[in-house]
Amino acid sequence: MKTKVTLALMSLFMMVSTFAYASFPVERQVTTKVVQLENGTTMEETSTSLTTPAAVVWSEDQTIATLLFVFLWPFAAHRWFLKSPIGWNILFILTFGGLGIWALVDLIDILTGNYPGL
User: Fold this and answer.
1) Domain TM2: where (predicted)?
2) Which of 19, 64, 94, 108 is least enclosed, having the fewest CB within 10 Å?
3) How far is residue 117's CA from residue 59's CA, in Å, rounded to a whole number?
4) pLDDT, tens digit, for every residue of 34-88?
5) How many CA atoms lie within 13 A of 3 on its CB side?
């Protein structure tokens, strides 16, 4: 019985995940250029470019903060490096990264470049 329920839930999860869309914003930039031809007519040229968070330049501080997080996250090394307030860093250490939730939020912020110290 447990196997049937597990397989049913797995198939349901697979069906739902196929309808998922990108969870990050994709900005579309459309530029229009009007060209005047020699015979007096005008022609519009449009070009579209997509910018995503992945296209953002990865900084050296981001690399160092990510490595510090991977190897020393229980000691809040990434937070000390990015100059977070001392009280919050100590609280991070005492609560073991907010039971992992706070640590996960920090990792996502560092990877996306949204952490305040970057």
Assistant:
1) 61-108
2) 19
3) 12
4) 777 777 777 777 776 666 555 455 678 899 999 999 999 899 999 999 999 999 9
5) 0
Half-sphere exposure of 9 (CA within 13 A, CB side): 6
Report the length, in residues, of the chain: 118
Cβ neighbours of residue 27 closer than 8 Å, sequence gap 6 or more? 50, 51, 52
Q: Return the structure tokens found at 35.
A: 């060209």
Is pTM, for the whole model, over 0.70? no
End-to-end CA, the chain? 51
